[in-house]
Amino acid sequence: MKNITRTFLGFTALVLSLQCFSDSNDTNLDLIHARQSNMELRSYFLGPLAAMAKGKLPYDAEMAAKLSNSLQLLNGLDMGRAWAPGTGNDKYEGETTALPKIWDTYPEIGKYGKKYETAVDALASTAGNSLNELRASLGDVGKACKACHDDFTEKQ
Ligand code: HEC
Ligand 1 centroid vs 110 CA: distance in angstroms? Predict the structure, then answer.
């Protein structure tokens, strides 16, 4: 009995703590925040690489390899559910910059995603070799980020 009570209390505590993670009762907002967090992490890893390429940060081979590998790891996450139909800026104005076009033209955005992944794979296999190789492969990554934002996100 004691065990059951303890289990029950543990479960209640878990439910309560999980509720703290949720911003509201609208779970679509959690999805939007999850995909935005994934995007923020892309910037987090890309930022120092771009600074190295521009000479604003000294080139560090080990750091460049780690950053680009981390960027590549993000592509292994299954984020599909976070892009649920009906979560564009027409319904969630102010919460997301994702255009309804993402879903209206689906699977068009997949091509942009594939291009991005190919560019990140190339970056991950070269960024740690030399500053020149980092510079050579980083451009395509930046272009792939920009192309998708230009076509599928609200202009800021
Ligand atoms: C295949 C499309 C695609 C690619 C590639 C892409 N993004 Fe995004 N990004 C989006 C979309 C769509 C949004 C809008 C998400 C939202 O607000 O729900 C977004 C939003 C963002 C945001 C804003 C997040 C926030 O908190 O509102 C940042 C930062 C960002 N992207 C960075 C990047 C970087 C850096 C790259 C490349 C390393 C990249 N993205 C590649 C589609 C893409």
Answer: 14
- Ligand 1 lined by 116 (C-beta under 6 Å): yes
pLDDT digits (tens, 9 = 90+) for 24-78: 699 999 999 999 999 999 999 999 999 999 999 999 999 999 999 999 999 999 9
List the residue whose alpha carbon is closest to atom 27 of ligand 1. Answer: 36
Going by C-alpha positions, the residue among 30, 71, 31, 24 that lies closest to residue 47 is: 71
Domains by residue range for the chain, with CATH: 26-152 (1.20.120.10)
Whole-number mean pLDDT of the chain?
91
Place 156 in a pLDDT band, splitting at 50, 70 and 90.
Answer: confident
One-letter identity of residue 121: D
